[in-house]
Amino acid sequence: MAVNTTVEVAMPAMGESVSDGTILEWHKQEGDTVAEDETLVEISTDKVDAEVPAPTAGTVVKIHFAEGDTVDVGAVLAEIAPSNGAGPGSTEAPAETETPAEPEPAAEAKVIDIEMPAMGESVSEGTILEWAKQVGDSVAEDEPLVEISTDKVDAEMPSPASGTLTEILVEAGETVTVGQVLGRMTVGAGAPKAAATPAPEPTSAPRPAGDASVAVPEGAKITPVAARVAAAHGVDLNAVTGTGPAGRISKADVLAASENGATAAPAKDDGAKLLKGAGAMLARYMEESRSIPTATSFRTITVTTLDGRRKQLKEAGRKVSFTHLIAYAIARAATEQMPVMTNAFAEIDGKPHVIDTGQVNLGIAVDVEKKGGGRTLMVPVIRDAGRLTFPQFLDAFNDLIARARENKLTADDLQGANVSLTNPGGIGTVASVPRLMNGQGTIVATGSIAYPVGLGAIGAAIGAEKVMTMTSTYDHRVIQGAESGQFLQVVEAYLQGEHGFYELLFEQLGATLGPAPEPPQPAVLPAAEPAPAGEPARRKSDVGGMADDTMLQAVQAAVSLLKAHRMHGHLAARLDPLGAEPEGDPALDPEPLGLTNEIMRRIPARILRTHVPGATLADALPKLRETYCGTIAYEIEHIASHRQRTWLREKIESGEFRGPLTNQEEKALLRR
Q: How confident is the model over 350-364, as a mean pLDDT?
């Protein structure tokens, strides 16, 4: 005889890491009838939302928790009086229970956990990108089961055995830790298609929070029901304040905001594409880099020595690129003379710290073509690069670049850089100010190797040297501008052959060091034509006429001197109120360039396109120094717009905005 009793509806388990949930909405109230498997209540956890079905048909006689309450797994949510007097709580067991409970095949089946694997020493978590199999699917051993993305690499996780996927505990988009159980599968001859569990299960697969097509603010907690309601009503979630546990936005919050006229959220563009894997990680790094206070130093160097030594190595059968030599010079300079450039900032226990690893871990930016098309940026790391011999450095460099382009880098290959090098000059970029990533002290960018702007057509004819601009972008919390400027100066010294750079390099490669490369010479010029009758003869050294070699070199030196004042004059500016001498820069001195007073008096200032007063370079140079090395410093040559640069040069050098103050202006200034 059946006994009428109530059936308890318990809070079901929704994954190993889920211990409680919040009641979102009751679909039935006390006194309502409910069919078996009909949705009874909707519950939200910090991982998923799920609809709990009725375990039996009957009448809801008791609801133990109200909407918004937090309940533990296993807690009784409600009680149902079965309509037929027999349910899970009936004292009269149905006849079917007499049948054998464990068929022979089921006894051979075994359930195993699918765990998040380790993907490198530095990787502690990852994000589920996509499940290749769904619950009930058969899967072979080593067949791709799920794709996981970490902050370094993406990887397909293979199935640990052949069998049937019976449970998915973590949905796409969720973050998991190494060793966490992602799902379960049944292996063995009698493996069923899906595992049965005594507790009531959700009627549909759990959905990650924020699943609806609405923009969810970063860090916001929202139930999927609320997200779907926001999408349906066009509510901007940035304007909604959550009243649920831990500030979670509920359906009621969204409806209240809708009634109060919250701004409609922008519709998702049809062309929008979700960033995943390395692309998503790169976007995240770029966002994080915005929190780093950086500054950038610029330095333009001649590359005659660098180019000449590389050609000598090429003739000796050694495959060495400009980037190889520049990267090694950076590593040596930072290791031997400027270790401060490797310093990184970190906040530990809420207090600022400087991180000094004692070595240069050099990151090399590599443009990589992805398997599915498109491109991304990867930065593999050469560890302790400044203490490697040059052959060791070459091997490490070439190995990392090759594996980056073959998508064979591991997570550890991409970890720990404190100085990085990027080379946009390969596509003609003159100078670049790249982003500095967290954990790094400096990133160096090299520009294109070419004649100075405006001399491309005549550079070879007048004996001009090719140049390259380097920039050093640094973390201003732990590195100062003078240190960055000095660092670029030291790197240039290595590339020009100081500190035995090329001698050691050639010796380690087993190549013979040739003579020092000579600066280029002007092309041979035709003789000047005789002056027409009645006109005075023109001297070969007249700049307005056909110039001789000495005068051409002098003009080139004058152009370099002018450019040095515009780019590095601020290093000699008298800015210290205590009167300390500025660092200065050797490029500001005309003497090493061979510019004597006599030669400078023969160079018209108008051909240099400077705006300071003076008929000749000798007249203009003191004004040029006063402008760029006085009590106001200017640094404008990094500005990308040519129109803006030329306008600023004219206004700065002409002194248009530096006129004396009127009596009224002086009085107004004193009254402030």
A: 93
Of 117, 41, 111, 127, residue with least CA distance to 76: 41
Q: How many residues does the chain have?
A: 672
The H or E element that residue 107 is part of is helix 104-108
Asked if 145 contacts 155 with a C-beta cutoff of 8 angstroms, the reply is no
What would the two tokens of residue 248 be?
């979670």
Q: What are phi and psi of 164, to 5 degrees?
A: -125, 130
Residues β-bridged to residue 20: 72
* pLDDT per residue as tens digits for the range 412-455: 898 899 999 999 887 778 888 988 988 899 999 999 999 988 88
What's residue 417's pLDDT? 93
Pair 179, 116: CB distance under 8 Å: yes
Q: Residue 205: helix, strand or coil by DSSP?
A: coil
Rounded to whole angstroms, the Cα distance separating 417 from 344 reads 10
Distance CA 77, CA 56 (A): 14
Which one, of 211, 203, 120, 123, lies nearest residue 173 by Cα? Answer: 211
Residue linked to tokens 């006063």: 626
Query: What's the pLDDT at 350?
Result: 86
Cα distance between residue 213 and residue 231, in whole Å = 6
Residue position matching structure tokens 């996927």:
165
- Side by side, which strands form the sheet with 381-382? 294-302, 467-475, 442-446, 419-422, 362-364, 381-382
Helix (DSSP H) and strand (DSSP E) numbers for the chain = 15, 27
Report yes or no: 499 and 315 within 8 Å, Cβ to Cβ.
Answer: no
Asked which of 129-138, 225-234, 261-270, 624-633 is least confident by mean pLDDT, the reply is 261-270
Angle at 169 between CA 163 and CA 172, to 5 degrees: 100
User: How many Å apart are CA 491 and CA 470, to the nearest integer?
Assistant: 10
CA 642 to chain CA centroid, nearest Å: 28
In the structure encoding, which two tokens stand for residue 159, read together? 């199935």
* AA identity, residue 297: S
Catalytic residue list: 476
CB 211 within 8 Å of CB 227: yes
Cβ proximity of 487 and 308 under 8 Å: no
| CA dihedral over 140, 146, 147, 150, signed as positive or negative | negative
For residue 422, what are the β-bridge partners?
A: 445
| Lowest-confidence pick of 193-202, 230-239, 457-466 | 193-202
- Residue 152 CA to residue 507 CA, distance in Å, equals 37
User: In sequence order, which ranges of 496-548 are alpha helices (DSSP H)?
Assistant: 501-509
pLDDT exceeds 70 at position 337: yes
Residue-wise DSSP of 592-609: GGT--HHHHHTSBGGGGT
- Beta carbons of 265 and 217 less than 8 angstroms apart: no
Any idea what DSSP says for residue 286? H
Q: Give yes or no for a contact between 304 and 520, defined as CB atoms under 8 angstroms apart.
A: yes
Contacts of residue 56, defined as CB under 8 A and 6 or more positions apart, other chains included, come to 7, 36, 80, 82, 87, 88
Tell me: the pLDDT tens digits for 477-489?
999 999 999 999 9
Could you tell me which residues come within 8 angstroms of residue 664 by beta carbon, excluding any fewer than 6 positions away? Answer: none
CB of 561 within 8 A of CB of 590?
yes
3-state SS assignment for residue 108: helix
For 450, which DSSP code? Answer: B
Is 87 within 8 Å of 55 (Cβ atoms)? yes
What's the mean per-residue pLDDT of the chain? Answer: 81
Three-class secondary structure of residue 557 per DSSP: helix
| Stretch 535-549: mean pLDDT | 48
CB atoms within 10 A of CB 74: 11
Q: Write out the DSSP string of 259-283.
A: HTTPPPPPPPPTT-----HHHHHHH
